[in-house]
């Protein structure tokens, strides 16, 4: 260990931008054994591991880095998977530059962070290849069943933890494939879909039952599900797109990011997508403008490049330093030819209801901090310019759907933001026996935080039923 002084930081080899633009394959190659061990050996084995403290899951990062260095790969996987239900997915899509790697002590000393995410992915892929990942075999089967609404990362993490404890678990999802945004929201160049399918099969082989193409209210009421199960977990995520607030926002050619990404992912999976086939959701030979500065915006611009767009521009109302998305993803987009217009905000969509043909943009400057502490963007009077655009993609974030109305449950209380109100310790909602996890509690957030919630809610349900079993039976 402690080789950071003599050994430089290296990431896995990254494919050439010109090649990347031609397909949707993942852009990073996998570490070979020697390189993974070399990079893991750079860890300084801090007494207070800031990387672990800044990982939402509290992963024991220094421990599994040390095990990789020593070639003890099966043990490394055991340590990695003890706190994370999807390490191969987090290793690919977590914004490590904002979390573990961004807090690495040797990074702060100027030596360059340990490539934690890439080593994490390497560990789990090695485990899959060697057959170390076996279906769960609970020590005992419990009679209680838990219904989980939503098969995204929060729901899947909860399902695994509950099944590990012997609960009978059934997961309901509105989509025809399991994974939620992991399948339909995140492009292949960041997360190939067979990685998600492999994790789903592991859960099925472990005894988790999946019910796909299922809508609460259409296929069964929420009350029906509550009668069928001893506990319910709501892990639906947030899917309602924030709208564009300017003249022309309703013109044809202005589309939501999730519609665009879902169409692209479905085409990649071999599905027929009429809106894509018609050109409505296809960027080929078009001038594309994406509005937003988060990871979803980066997914959109990089997808448009691969679809053969004539030009791709990203508008963000603040500057680069205040962009909420991953620095790494922004750099990847720039390498692939995306143009960024910083301090730029849409003022009006040009064209008419039948067709958008451009966008008028206001130049912005940063003013005083808002309630979040970030400096607010302020329009510069008279500083406007026009941009050609055949397709304008709104990547402005997501808000919760109206779950009390959707589920026909007025007793399901929400916060002022529309997220479900929960007990912060147990994640139980206002309805006893109904829990919630992931974005529907936090608002739009990271996959890793959804996994945190899934584990937390499973622990709370387990504790509840274990305590009930331990209660003495009253004397007759």
TrEMBL record:
Residues 1-20 are annotated as: Disordered. SUPFAM superfamilies: alpha-helical ferredoxin (SSF46548), Nucleotide-binding domain (SSF51971). The keyword Metal-binding applies. InterPro entries: DPD_II, FAD/NAD-bd_sf, FAD/NAD-binding_dom, GltD-like, Helical_ferredxn. It comes from the Bacteria. It holds the Pfam family Pyr_redox_2. It comes from Hyphococcus lacteus. NCBIfam families: gltD_gamma_fam. Residues 20-131 form the Dihydroprymidine dehydrogenase domain. Gene3D superfamilies: Alpha-helical ferredoxin (1.10.1060.10), FAD/NAD(P)-binding domain (3.50.50.60). Transmembrane segments: none annotated. This is NAD(P)-dependent oxidoreductase. Residues 146-451 form the FAD/NAD(P)-binding domain. The keyword Iron-sulfur applies. Keywords: 4Fe-4S, Iron, Iron-sulfur, Metal-binding, Oxidoreductase.
